[in-house]
Write a structure and sequence with these properties.
Layout (H helix, E strand, L loop, with lengths): L6 H14 L6 H15 L28 E9 L2 E9 L2 H4 L5 E7 L6 H8 L1 H8 L2 E5 L18 H5 L4 H16 L1 E11 L1 H12 L6 E5 L15 E7 L10 E2 L4 E2 L2 H11 L7 E4 L3 E6 L8 E6 L9 H7 L8 H10 L5
Parallel strand pairs: 3-4, 3-5, 5-6, 6-7, 7-12
Antiparallel strand pairs: 1-2, 2-4, 8-9, 10-11, 11-12
């Protein structure tokens, strides 16, 4: 197990990212979050109680599933905790009449929430267009509400308290399948930073359930066991990321793999040819590993000059060859739907 002193920097940067990196349609959300942050820091938290210290509300564990298209904040009991998640059901849920729908699991970065992640990734909008369910699990920290996932080597409360996030997400998949008849050949996971680290760990531990992953600005520790099966992967990482370094860290007290090392792990696990097909343009480089077993695939998008951020629409358009209206959610979904469990 690798201790993660780096996570402090990752966390503080991610809190800023949630309020500062997105442009265009995200600006209103960012402004709202920034104003709220200023109010709270000024000691004027409108949500605080005069009777007791402020803390995250205790959600009621949901008893009945949502049945109509829309967004729902829900919860389930797992591991002695009440675990919350933000659920998006697409219009297709109303007309599927029992037809199995794919499921995409989206994991936020340290300090975020499922709802905040949904607000800027565009995955719910993609789900409405393409007809799949999206769930945005929250990490854990019942005292401070500073949510993180235990991604094997990072981060904070979840790692320190050995929270079983693999078990939680596995149980969440089962619950959603019970309620909505999920297409179990099309269960996918994507995430950012700590969420991306968790996505790598999920794929390693739940290779029998996860068909493909899309980590953004994440890394692997390097001591993960070989997965029990193939999992396709599309990876996004900026080569100027100052929080989760593109070239990794290899020190005596802590380490994590480079992007090449993390991608190489999955290329090897999927039985791909050792050398990738490489393409390059002014904005990015694109590496495709081919010849993988059981129809799997591994792809890496390196964003030139890219920081620790979810790729915006302009970046996504460049990655897609300057395709109009391209976005990262669409790039991810197009990869996902092409790679089902065998």
């Amino acid at each position: 197990m690798v201790v993660c002193p780096l996570c402090k920097a990752v966390d503080s940067a991610e809190v800023l990212l949630y309020t500062g990196v997105m442009t265009g349609r995200k600006q209103l959300l960012n402004l709202t979050l920034c104003v709220l942050l200023v109010v709270i820091l000024a000691g004027c938290n409108p949500f605080a109680s005069s009777q007791q210290a402020a803390g995250p509300p205790t959600p009621v564990v949901d008893q009945l599933p949502a049945t109509a298209a829309g967004d729902y904040q829900q919860a389930m009991a797992f591991g002695g905790l009440t675990r919350t998640y933000y659920l998006h059901l697409p219009p297709a849920i109303n007309v599927s009449v029992g037809q199995p729908l794919p499921l995409v699991i989206m994991l936020h970065g340290a300090g975020g929430t499922g709802a905040s992640f949904a607000a800027y990734t565009g995955m719910s909008q993609e789900a409405d267009h393409e007809g799949f369910i999206v769930v945005y699990p929250d990490g854990s920290d019942p005292q401070q509400g500073h949510f993180t996932f235990n991604a094997h080597w990072c981060c904070f409360y979840a790692q320190d308290h050995k929270i079983d996030d693999v078990g939680y997400i596995s149980a969440l998949i089962d619950l959603l399948h019970q309620r909505y008849n999920v297409n179990l050949k099309m269960v996918y996971a994507s995430g950012f930073s700590n969420g991306a680290m968790m996505v790598y760990w999920l794929a390693d531990q739940l290779a029998g359930k996860i068909a493909a992953i899309a980590p953004v600005s994440g890394a692997m520790a390097g001591d993960e066991p070989a997965p029990a099966g193939t999992v396709s992967a599309i990876v996004f990482h900026g080569d100027a990321d100052n929080n989760v370094l593109y070239n990794g860290v290899n020190k005596s007290d802590y380490h994590y793999l480079s992007v090449a090392g993390s991608v190489g792990f999955w290329a090897k696990a999927d039985g791909c040819k050792p050398s990738a097909q490489h393409q390059e343009n002014a904005a990015s480089s694109h590496d495709d590993y081919t010849g993988c077993t059981q129809g799997s695939a591994v792809t890496l998008y390196t964003i030139k000059g890219g920081a620790h951020a979810w790729p915006g629409d302009e970046v996504a358009a460049a990655l897609a060859g300057n395709t109009a209206k391209a976005n990262t959610a669409a790039l991810i979904w197009n990869f996902f739907k092409a790679h089902k469990k065998g």
